[in-house]
Amino acid sequence: MTLRLTADMLAAGYDFLRTTAPFSRWRLPEADELGFHVVRDDKLSADFGVEAGIPFIRVSEGCNGHTQTVLASLAHEMIHLRQYLTGDRELHGPRFKRMAARVCAAHGFDPKIF
To answer: Are 76 and 46 in contact (CB under 8 A)?
Structure first.
């Protein structure tokens, strides 16, 4: 059985991760300052964007059916949120990879699929 995702679940997962290292040192906004959306795209795991000045994270139910994958996808997009907030536009460049390595080490996510 897979999770039936909701925007509230994504916001709660975001808030949980936000309280843990390394996210807790990044001064990320609270969940109520972001938009969270569930999509059903089998080709998209998750993505980050900004619409009308409000950052949002979308997570696909088609690719994320278990708690671990949902949290890993949220964590990945939280790095992109940090990049956006700090003006880093490299997406998956060296700084992203360094942050991802810290996140994966702290949370046990597989860096090969992160």
So the answer is: yes
pLDDT tens-digit series, residues 29-72: 999 999 999 999 999 999 999 999 999 999 999 999 999 999 99
Q: How far apart are CA 78 and CA 76, in angstroms?
A: 5
If we measure between CA atoms, which residue out of 45, 80, 49 comes closest to residue 64?
45
Residue 77 and residue 28: Cα distance in Å, rounded?
12
Which two tokens mark 47?
């993505």
Whether this model's pTM surpasses 0.90: yes
3-state secondary structure of 91: coil
- Beta strand 35-39 pairing with 54-60: parallel
Task: In whole angstroms, give the CA distance from residue 78 to residue 72.
Answer: 10
CA angle 54, 72, 113 (to 5 degrees): 120
